[in-house]
Amino acid sequence: MQESHFAGGVEKGELSALLRLIGRKVDPALLEFLLHQGRNFLDGVGTSEARPEGNADWQYELIADLVPEGASVLDLGCGEGNLLARLTREKGARVQGVELDANNVEVCVEKGVPVIQADLDLGLSVFPDESFEYVILEETLQTLRRPDIIIAEMRRVGGRGIVTFPNFGFWKVRLDLAVRGRMPVTGWLPHRWYQTPNIHLFTIRDFLDYADEIGMNIIDIHVLKNGVSSRFEENDNLYAEEALVFFE
Question: For residues 173 and 238, what is the distance between their CA atoms, to the nearest angstrom?
Fold first, then answer.
């Protein structure tokens, strides 16, 4: 069978004719320049941008400001315990971590950070209702099998919650998928599709829709745009690389 269709229903023959017409109407040198620049642009879409150094933990500054002195804090997926160690040191917070990776658990213990080794996908049944003032989930929601369950558990065990996540509505992610027809690999999403821990892809708007559905009271939203943290604005579903949502 002859392959004849492109997106939008343009036939191969029609496309060739269109290119010949453009070639007659446009300065060939200009056309070559535009095609060259276009290739350079497409080569760089979503694949060459490294995550800015120092921005990986941009949430830490915000969280340290949000958590009051002496608060009780549960950090889900706490990694090596860096955030909890900081909250203990700077805010005198009473902290507890939950982490699945055994190596990270060992590092937490070495730092003196209280930690439980547990799988978040199994819930938080070890914690009673309203046992913490703040529950934090950093860069983990999109990796869970049932993110809705962990959000419900956060609301059960904590008075207030802080969730951070990559925004899959970011324009470079959208463009990479649209132009290449491949799952994006960026400085913010560095894993290939078969290696990625991200199994639930969602945007800021998706999260806000879900929050509305379950009656979540959102106190504030911050985003990271071009390496700078700012409060959420209407168009940030397109322009923000990451988001932090503060709710109760």
Answer: 10
Residue 8's alpha-carbon distances to 4, 33, 35, 178, in angstroms, are 12, 26, 21, 13
- Over the stretch 53-70, which tens digit does the pLDDT of each residue have? 445 578 999 999 999 999
Q: Are 97 and 115 in contact (CB under 8 A)?
A: yes
- Token output for 59: 């949430």
Beta bridge pairs of residue 17: none
Q: Output the pTM of the full model.
A: 0.78
How far apart CA 226 and CA 96 sit, in angstroms, is 32
Pair 142, 178: CB distance under 8 Å: no
Nearest residue to 160 via CA among 66, 57, 60, 65: 66
The span from the CA of 222 to the CA of 228, in Å, is 10
